Amino acid sequence: MLVSVKKMLDELEKNNIQYCHWKSNEHIRPALNGDTDLDILFLPEQRVLIDRVLSECGLKRFRATPLMQYNAIEDYIGFDEKTAKIWHLHTHYRMTLGEKHLKGYTITTWGPKIIENKIWNPEGIYTSSFEDEYIMFMVRNSLKLRWRDYNRSLGKDDVKELLWLKEKINNDKLIIRLDQFLSDAAKKEILKLTTLELSNKNQLTPLKNILRKELNVFTGYSKVHSWWLRSKRELFWLFGAVSRRTGLDTNKPNRRLSPAGGAAIAFLGSDGAGKTTTIKYVKKELGKKLDVKIIYLGSGDGSSSLLRKPMKLIAKKVGGKGLGHSVAKEYSQNNKNDVSLKGRLYSMAKIMWADTLAKEKKKKLKKVTKARNNGMIILLDRYPQIEVDGYNDGPLLSKYIKNGSGILYKKAVREFDIYRSACLNPPDLTLKLLVPTQLATQRKPEMSVEEIENKKAAVIKMKPSENSVIIDTSVNLTESLRNVMNEIWKVI
């Protein structure tokens, strides 16, 4: 069990909060380890106290996107510092059941009965009794049935859970509990199904027909409204699943939002500091439950505009390491008229590159603002800065501002304004990943000590946001990722 989950359960007990984990208890251990969701049923009259206790335990309440919100269910995300994992808690205040993407039945009378009959699980949590869970399993799976489920087999996980429950239930207790939840007709059908070996969803159809008539009083949807809402939600869910798996560029969230709004986290790092590895881990971990997007704001090997892609290819072919320094030296030592043709061509190319890059950054910064305002978490690989000209994502044309006139002056001013806008709307957190120079040279042997030292100094000097934290990534990877996630958790 995660330390953070244990802390929450202990606090629920101390504050005399009545609860039970009401479904999927066959695999409760993965849920307690943060690998699957926790579904805990509470009494609605204790909601204010529950909110306070969960908040004091470090959990943060998130809300599903408007189209995917279900009645009487709330989302909390927890963070476990020891393992650097996030975990997900559903708080249920009523029994909200029904078809996937609809859950059209909110049954107000069952929750207190289930909590009253809870049992202690050896894993360290209160769960629903085996009989109650078995009844809810049959009800849930029956109400989920749709026309597309005709003649389909029960899922392997459902069959496994059903067999586990059948081994645990006491038939006499089951009959007593059925009388407290359902009518005689539904009771007889469930007892009949208990004697059968369930393998096909069609076997649940008679129970579905009985339940939909009996529980009609607990739904506020008409047939047309149900179909329309379910269809919209399913299409929305499908689009979100496809976009996540294909990397489709979207600035609209489709999972969960923080009431505090979105967050932008900038990652800066000297070479060899493990920035790419860190960003990938954070994206994977937070992306399990939240809307997370990576935006590259550098000028190197990351994503770029179509216009700049051929420029990057040419630069790799003919640029050569140190060409920029040699051209700058040539301009400083010679009369302007004595500069070589190669130097002039490089200067022209640099102006085109800088102008295109600035426009690219402007578009990307607009995406950052839009995604953050929509409630997403944006991981920024590098960030524009104005502290160091011509280096480390700083302006490249600043020297032309001294001219005070002309087309190059105008381009330089426009470029500076774009970079300055990044500082006016800063990220919520800047993480500076650094390692000792000796380790960096081992990881990046193609770079000199002087180059690494210069880059480290530039990263330290940069200040995209007031909230900046230096992370030493020379420690073991688990500790490094834990430190990074701990800082991010504070701002989301």
Tell me what the structure shows:
With 492 residues, this protein is α/β, with parallel strands linked by helices. Among the domains are: 1-128, 2-Layer Sandwich (Beta Polymerase, domain 2); 254-305 and 348-491, 3-Layer(aba) Sandwich (Rossmann fold), CATH 3.40.50. It has 18 helices and 15 strands. The chain has helices spanning 3-14, 28-32, 47-56, 110-116, 130-143, 156-168, 171-181, 184-194, 205-214, 223-246, 275-286, 309-319, 323-333, 341-373, 407-424, 437-443, 449-461, 477-491; strands at residues 19-21, 38-42, 60-64, 73-80, 85-92, 95-97, 105-107, 119-121, 125-127, 256-257, 263-269, 292-296, 377-381, 429-434, 468-472. It has a six-stranded mixed β-sheet with strand order 1-2-5-4-3-10. A hairpin with an 8-residue loop joins strand 3 and strand 4 (73-80). Helix 5 (130-143) runs antiparallel to helix 6 (156-168). It is elongated. The chain starts with a helix and ends with a helix.
User: Shape, please?
Assistant: elongated
Question: What's the count of strands?
Answer: 15
Distance between the termini: 24 Å
CATH class of the domain at 254-305 and 348-491: Alpha Beta
Strand order of the largest sheet: 1-2-5-4-3-10
Instruction: Report the mean per-residue pLDDT as an integer.
Output: 85
List the helices and strands and how they pair.
Elements: H1 3-14, E1 19-21, H2 28-32, E2 38-42, H3 47-56, E3 60-64, E4 73-80, E5 85-92, E6 95-97, E7 105-107, H4 110-116, E8 119-121, E9 125-127, H5 130-143, H6 156-168, H7 171-181, H8 184-194, H9 205-214, H10 223-246, E10 256-257, E11 263-269, H11 275-286, E12 292-296, H12 309-319, H13 323-333, H14 341-373, E13 377-381, H15 407-424, E14 429-434, H16 437-443, H17 449-461, E15 468-472, H18 477-491
Parallel strand pairs: 2-5, 11-13, 11-14, 12-13, 14-15
Antiparallel strand pairs: 1-2, 3-4, 3-10, 4-5, 6-7, 8-9
